[in-house]
Amino acid sequence: MVDFYLIDFAFLFTLGITASLHCVGMCGGIACSYAIPVSQKFPKALWKYHSTYVLGRILAYSWIGALLGAVGMGFGFVAGPDSTLQHVGTVFAALIMLIGGAASTFGRKWPDRIASVISSSFRVFTAPVRQWSTRFGPWRALPLGMLSGILPCGMMWAVELRALATNSLLWGMVTMLVFCLITTPPLLMASTIMAKVSPRFRFRSVQFAGIIVMGMGAYLIWKHYVAIQTWFLYLCDPI
Amino acid sequence: MVSANTTDTSCIHCFLPIDQDSVYHRQHEGETLDFCCLGCATVWETIHGSGLGSYYAQREITGDESPVDFESTQDFKRFDREGVFRSYVKQRDDGLHEISLLVDGIHCAACIWLIEKFLQQSHGIHEVLLNIGTHRAFVVWDQQSVKLSEILERFHKIGYTALPYDPALHEQHQQSLLRQILLRLAVSGFCAGNIMLFSISLYAGYFSGMEEEYKFLFEAISGLLSLPAMAYSAIPFWQGAWRAMRIRQPNMDFLIALGIGITFTYSVVMLLTKTGDTYFDSCAMIIFFLLIGRTLEHLTKTKVISITERLSSLSPKFAARLNEDGEEATVTLDEIETDDRLLVRPGDTVPVDGIIESGETEIDESSLTGESQWRFVTAGENIFGGTANQSNAFVMVAQAVGQDTILQRIVRLVEDASQRKPKIQRIADHVASWFVWVVLLLALGTWAYWNWWGDGGTKSPWLIAVSVIIIACPCALGLATPTAILAGTSIATRLGLLFKGGDLLEEAARITDIIFDKTGTLSQGTMQVISVHDLGGQKMSQWFPLILPLEHLAHHPIAEAIENYALSLDYQRPPMDPQLFRTYPGRGISGYIDNQFIIAGNCLLLKEHGIPLPESAVIPNSLQQPYLEIYVVINQTLQGKIVLQDMLRKEAPEILKTLQQMKIHTHILSGDHQNAVNYLAQHLSIEEAHGNLLPDQKLEYIQKLQEQGKRVLMVGDGINDAPALNQANVGIAVRNATDISLDTADIVLMHSQLHGILHVLQISKQTRKLIKQNLGISLIYNALTIPAAMMGWINPLFAALAMACSSILVTLNALRFRQAGIKY
């Protein structure tokens, strides 16, 4: 059962807007690192680098979104459409979002142990990507763009969880893609934004993004709580 | 909500404060680096792993420069002080003063028209010329009637800030402006992008149904998101509109502000009353599209107008001045005075114009003349500021400093050229200013029609009128000519051609006849020995060295040519002083060397001395061949003959052939003998050849051609041909820019290559074609889109996109020409 409505778009957009300042701080460095030498030596070629970087991001985000959506969809097939197990699974994902959002808002990182485990598993992907990105020419920006889709980033994990909870390959992909596209323009203007926006303001935006993640989680729980409650009442009173 | 454990330490990657409970470390070159999260640490590793680690070092260096604060420079009275006044103002021969100003806040042709009109009506101001491309104003005024500070205040009064032009200030201003535009663009793009995503939901809701609460929520969020675009990104439009309202002369900013203002107000009313659809997306997108257009325009203009900045930057900041004791002191260029002795080391740029006092070196003059070969110079020779010393250190004596150097004269010429507008541009500027009124009337009429008589269905009359206002902004019309002229002059300067006015590009494109001067133009203007013949009993190795001591004393171009020829053959000048040395003007020289009486001269001199002429002797100015023969007589016996010729420029035949292919009539006018001129004309297939002409006869010849309706281009050396160059529709001086030709001709070829003539013609034709193309684009655009908008077929969003596209198209068209260059 596809779980994605217009209100989810609204959440994603707002999260994308607020989280983009966080992205500028973290992933913006990647865009700047290849753009600065290129803009000094071959300013006319900069658009090629930016294009391949954006392409890399789109590829990585859409594939990860599709993969997670497919996992959710597969889980739905196994557990049965609209089954209680599927609802419980979604609520579980939503709970993680809630905890993660709270961690961002109240200045705590996502639990270190979890983050470290996930991060180290991502090294399997990041090592070849780095290898590729040492090559010259505009295509070196492609793996760098792809890498931003597999970085250990709390904001992205929240969106990935939401993609998982869509229970649809297509909507999982759309979820990640929307987030990718909203955050791309600020990344390409990272140097200007970094110069104009103070770290304190970026820090506040991360805290605010945490609230939105919590809102997304809470909304998911509210939606699926009704189904779980119905199932619970049914268990208590089968008639 | 900030964690209590946040420390003063910040993340090495993103600068966010680090929570001491969850700090991540990485080792780098023996140093421990702190990161706020695993993400930052991973990105840092990736950047280093990809070989891009220099980013962190560059990030430290690339500081954020504080923008030029035009607001803080409004103490205009300081420009009346004598020192400051003298730095920027030039007094003309007629007693009036002139200055070049950098004007902030110009956006369109209507601004140009407005400023020119307002200031020209002011008492004491004689002339105001503004350039939309360079944002520069050329003002001529009477200092007795009005002060410079008062003129600057008048600019300020109508909402523009003008300051005396200074290349450094201009550069900073351009950078600051670009930063500001990019930030406004980013904010509007961010808002527009996100509003559009909500709009997609709303559009989807129109078809599949949407609950009223959701619709209100999405529209309200869109309204909130459009606020930053309206309040920040649209500031230039609001400011421009306010200026226009203050002086009751609407401009393009007024139209845009009116359009987005109506759309936003309409949408707010619809949102609050829930009586219709909102168009916050249109507001944000209009601003976004228009800012894209302005950003591209700005970038293109910056590229095109960088010529004078590039030329100005050739001057070094400092120079090494030697005092009477030979001690060296570093001084700025302003401190150098004429007759100062300056030390120029290898690799240094020559600071000012002067003469070499001691030392010899090779000078790279490519920056001034375009000539790639270095010039060998030695004591007594002239050198020019802005050229580069390539070999040895030397001491020079300053002869022209400050604004009097050749480099500064070239900069002024290029600047003046950008101020002279073609006729077609003056018309376009004037039309653009009236066009705004026409647009307002059309919009009002459209609104009235759709409000009272038309049946727009769901379309609001307000939005249809807004579409008319937005789509009809005459930006493209205003940009059409100046962008083309800027592109043309930019290519010309790159090729070493100095146009003294943008109007000349228009004039040179319509040339029907080209007149050449002979000596120094088609020929090199210097004699060269082409052959030497033995005519007596002695061999050349015996008689030729004997004439060298005489030639050395002669100081004549022919003597110089003979000496150079001797040098090329390794003949040494005998160390003997000539006795009874004598010169015979126009005929030759004579004197005693080692008790032998030697005569070196033409046949007339031989005749005077009663020496029989050989049968093949050339009588000067009487034969067809333009050769010059010098006979050498030793003790009344003819021993040899030296043949000299003013060599034809190598490229001349090719140039003439190309001109004939272009169906341009060619003429040669010269003061030389008719036969010599005929010979040259025949050799080069020149249609008309006239010799024995005085300067005023050349002038009459040109006048006659002009009376026949011909448009004449005169190519001369800029000194003897001054009257003809002035009389011709376009005058080109084919000499180095270091000559007096800078002052006499309309166009100066900074190098001495005749190919420059073809470049002039081609650039002019291309520029004229470009102007026509650009005007065509803007007229077709308005002719098609205004009726469509009035019919209600175009919504405001598309109108903004189309309007931005038309401006971008015109600018890119000019840029295309600049990139493509020319073929010759």
Quick overview:
The complex is a heterodimer of chains A (239) and B (824). By secondary structure, chain A is mainly alpha-helical. Helices cover 82% and strands 0% of the residues of chain A.
Ranges of chain B with pLDDT <50 over ≥5 residues?
A: 1-7, 61-73, 620-624
Rg over alpha carbons of chain B: 35 Å
What's the story with the biggest beta sheet of chain B? Answer: 7 strands, mixed
Principal-axis shape of chain B equals elongated
The portion of residues assigned to helices of chain A is: over 70%
Instruction: Please state the oligomeric state of the protein chains shown.
Output: heterodimer
Helix vs. strand class of chain B:
alpha+beta
User: What is the domain total for the residues of chain A?
Assistant: 1
Care to describe what's here?
- The complex is a heterodimer of chains A (239) and B (824).
- With 239 residues, chain A is an all-alpha fold.
- Chain A has one domain (6-236).
- Chain A is 82% helix and 0% strand.
- Chain A has helices spanning 6-26, 28-41, 46-79, 84-105, 112-133, 141-147, 154-164, 169-188, 190-196, 199-236.
- Chain A is elongated and about 75 Å long.
- Chain B is of the alpha+beta class and 824 residues long.
- Chain B folds into 6 domains: 6-61, Ribosomal Protein L24e, Chain: T, CATH 2.30.170; 85-109 and 126-159, no CATH class; 180-306 and 417-485 and 780-820, no CATH class; 316-348 and 353-400, Calcium-transporting ATPase, cytoplasmic transduction domain A; 493-522 and 649-766, Rossmann fold, CATH 3.40.50.1000; 525-648, Calcium-transporting ATPase, cytoplasmic domain N (3-Layer(aba) Sandwich).
- Chain B is built from 28 helices and 31 strands.
- In chain B, strands 19-31-30-29-20-27-28 form a 7-stranded mixed beta sheet, with helices on both faces. Chain B has a 6-stranded antiparallel beta sheet with strand order 11-10-12-18-13-16, with no helix packed on it. Chain B has a 6-stranded antiparallel beta sheet with strand order 21-26-25-24-23-22.
- In chain B, strand 10 and strand 11 form a beta hairpin.
- The chains are: A mainly alpha (239), B alpha+beta (824).
